[in-house]
Design a protein that fits this description.
The protein is built from ten helices and nine strands. It has 289 residues and is of the alpha/beta class. Strand 8, helix 8 and strand 9 form a beta-alpha-beta unit. It starts with a strand and ends with a helix. The structure holds thiamine diphosphate, iron/sulfur cluster (SF4) and magnesium ion.
Length: 289
Amino acid sequence: MVQSAKPHSPIWCPGCGDFGVLAAVKRAAADLKIPTHELVLVGGIGCSGSIHNFLEINGIHALHGRLLAQAVGVKLANPSLTVLAAGGDGDGYAIGMGHFIHAFKKNASILYIVMNNETYGLTKGQASPTSQIGFEGNVEPPFHSILTALSIPAPNFIARTFSGDPKGMTAILEEALRFNREGRGFAFVEDLSPCVTYNDTYKLWREKVVDVSKLDGYDPTDRKRMFGVCLDIIDSGRIPIGVMHRPKDSDSAEGLEVKLVGSKRGPVRADSTLETNLPAYQKLLGGLA
Ligand SMILES: Cc1ncc(C[n+]2csc(CCOP(=O)(O)OP(=O)(O)O)c2C)c(N)n1
Ligand code: SF4
Ligand SMILES: [Mg+2]
């Protein structure tokens, strides 16, 4: 469903971490002075995926786990737009896992925000790929998105935020959006977004988070070292947050849309009149005769 109507009031439970993401997205877009008609948010399926309904921007409610394909499609069709995809840990890391991995490799200049609450909130609190052992009978170890992201050698922007730190989240979203708007590629930001109804982790996560940017020798351009830093933090039972990867300014990486569409007008703005396209069509038909 494509929607560009006035925003609705959020239907989330009071205190849901997703409110922090909503506020930070609004603040970041306003600080960067991005006109609302140039913003598109493709939402996944889940409590988190309804975020576009609460923003006065263009919104698409995607199929479950397929938001990235649609967001990349929007960006390629019209690279002048600022495109966000936003959904949950179930949407992105279960049914959407294949698309998640390919998004890093494709490297289109879009911002993907995953609101990770370690549960399927909308369907009433079942275990998700990021759930801890013991949660709702879960016996599998949790999936670590940041380690996976760091293991893919592509020039992406990779970060994790916490809904308990709205200022920090806004600053990181602003940097990610600037990265996208410069056509430098894919930005992935996972937000630790507690589900107060089925998995209230605010207190636990506040105690456990470790901001990697405050550690000695912090270097977000050194992917290999950062992988080790994050792994050590996870092994010690804590949770890394902050910017984990930021390509060097001297890296002249280009987003997928720059490589495929470049300075040409995107398909959305291409001349599709009959007069312009008829000769090519007739030539094609002639070749089949
Ligand atoms: C194809 C398909 N399979 C399953 C569902 C049921 N379903 C709806 S939302 C959801 C998971 C939601 O969890 P998450 O993505 O973590 O979002 P949250 O609600 O926690 O924000 C599932 C399994 C669905 N809507 N469509
Ligand atoms: S069920 Fe959980 S994730 Fe969904 S709105 Fe409520 S607190 Fe948020
Ligand atoms: Mg979830």
